[in-house]
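Checklist before submission:
- one chain only
- standard amino acids only
- sequence pasted in full

Submission:
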Amino acid sequence: QVQLVESGGGLVQAGGPLRLSCVASGRTAGGYVMGWFRQAPGKQRELVATIDSGYSTNAADSVKGRFILSRDNAKNTVYLQMNSLKPEDTAVYYCVADLYYGGRNPNQYRYWGQGTQVTVSS
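Returned file contents:
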């Protein structure tokens, strides 16, 4: 069992930065693929980015060049540095984890955090 606890959401002006953190606890959490999905009002959950224990990343085209995903395996923590934020980035951001990379399908990720709200004002 893996528990995920997110932090760092909030309100930011367009163009500004924000950093999200997610701490994983539980046996072998350090070996899991971890990452972030987001869900805006009225929209489906979409993949933001994932990173595996070897630091290989996958990211949505909409965030490439603006968001940076990193992890500290010693701390079982992933960080999502979000730069040049846009109003369309407004969503609830969910930390996810699973043994394997599940692509863009949220159903492929077994463990989810409670979500943290990110609001970008124009």
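Reviewer check: The mean pLDDT is 94.
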